[in-house]
Amino acid sequence: MVKKQLVDRMILLQEKVKDDSTRTVLPNPTSPGNPSLAWSSSVLPPAPSSHAIAEKLDAVQTEIQKLSQVLHMLLERQSQLEQQQEHQQRLQQELLVTLQQLSSAVSHGTVPANQPCIPFSSTAEPLPTMPSFSQFKMELV
Q: Which pairs with CB-CB distance under 8 Å and at least 24 residues apart come from 30-36?
């Protein structure tokens, strides 16, 4: 969508420059005399100077360069987003496979599904007695 807008804008600028440099006066059918073939009574605008044309071409070239830079930036960003999307899809696929394996293991009874909950303190080994630190006592003078 953005590419199309950029291309449309470039084409519009080119047409504008082309239209400005190739203006002609069209016949005016309502003028007195021969209404079907009469030319407008207005005077032709002065032909644009080569300097004016060069300025317009420079402006168009500058706009095209800007649009090209924007288009290049958008293409790079799109590439980055596509790579991120591919990475996320790979991660999601790996997660799905892991979940399917776990589900299969639970349904086939290889992993106990309903173990009774036992408090941790009753299953753990008794805590060892604290060592005596009396040998490390220091005498204060």
A: none
